[in-house]
Amino acid sequence: MGKLPSNMNEHPSEALRSWYATPLGEKMAACEKQMADSIIHSAFGYHLLQIGFVASVPLFESSPVSHKVMLCPRMSLGMTEQTIIAEPHELPITDNSQDVVILHHALDFADHPHQVLREASRVLRQGGHLLIVSFNPNSFWGVCRRCHRNPSPPWTAHGFSHWRLHDWIRLLDLTELKSHSDFHRPPIENERWFKRLGFMDSWFSKLPTHNGCILMMWVRKDVMGMTPLKPAWKTRKLISFPVAEPSARQKSARGKSI
């Protein structure tokens, strides 16, 4: 969704944190938490890592995982002791150590989004789950981004479509389990008009395409060496024809010829 401005190219965390504190940003955060709660509650394990630019929007509160850590590129107010300061494309975490990894708009504002996704796959254990949260360019927000060219987050987000992210995770041998989009209303600050447009969430959510501002993908890292079972319609059996067995006279004749 365009190129980041020079002042926000490396660390847009401060501006993004300020935007999440606005009334519209608070509605966005509430929607993201509700979407995440409906997904990650079924993932179990010991270690969870959320990677993003805003520590004030934790998406793991409903997760049954015991040890939860937040990773952000810069220090900010409100951070807990369970916070790591590091860049998303260079994770100081060992391989195959995390049961659940959450990418909270980490791809949207990264200079190297492919590397961020590779790092998330690296630290995720075999059989672990990855939750990708991204701004959807195929939405009203994506249209406003292309029209207005606002030079501040969240409008400076790259924004990746569902099919593009799907191709990326396939290259890393990850499996998409489900995907969902929400927050279909346009970015209107006026509270009265925002409520009047509430019908758009129910209308657009019925469409088969992902057209909400928030796009979430639930991905699994499969165990190496596992061969997926083929569907029954692909395992067709060949038609067997009856073959006559040689008689005793034919066997004796073959023995004499030798």
Notable traits:
Rossmann fold, seven-stranded mixed β-sheet, 8 helices, 30% helix
- The H/E string reads HHEEEEHEHHEHHEH
Number of helices: 8
**CATH fold-level assignment:** Rossmann fold
Apparent shape = globular
Largest sheet: 7 strands, mixed
Q: What integer value in Å does the Rg equal?
A: 26 Å
Beta-strand content:
15-25%
Instruction: Average the pLDDT over all residues and give the rounded result.
Output: 81
CATH architecture: 3-Layer(aba) Sandwich
Distance between the termini: 80 Å
- The CATH homologous superfamily is named Vaccinia Virus protein VP39
Pairing-aware structural class of the strands and helices? alpha/beta
The CATH class assignment is Alpha Beta
> How many runs of DSSP E, i.e. beta strands?
7
Q: Which spans have pLDDT < 50 for at least 5 consecutive residues? A: 1-10, 229-243
Helix content class: 25-40%
Neighbour order of strands in the largest sheet: 3-2-1-4-5-7-6
Count of folded domains:
1
Write the layout of secondary structure elements.
Elements: H1 13-20, H2 23-40, E1 47-52, E2 67-72, E3 83-85, E4 98-104, H3 113-123, E5 124-135, H4 140-148, H5 162-171, E6 174-182, H6 191-196, H7 199-204, E7 214-221, H8 248-257
Report on this structure.
The structure is a single chain. The protein is α/β, with parallel strands linked by helices. It has a single domain, classed as 3-Layer(aba) Sandwich (Rossmann fold). 30% of the residues lie in helices and 20% in strands. It has eight helices and seven strands, in the order ααββββαβααβααβα. It has a seven-stranded mixed beta sheet with strand order 3-2-1-4-5-7-6, sandwiched between helices. Strand 4, helix 3 and strand 5 form a beta-alpha-beta unit. It is globular, with a radius of gyration of 26 Å. The chain starts with 12 loop residues before the first helix and ends with a helix. The N terminus is likely disordered.
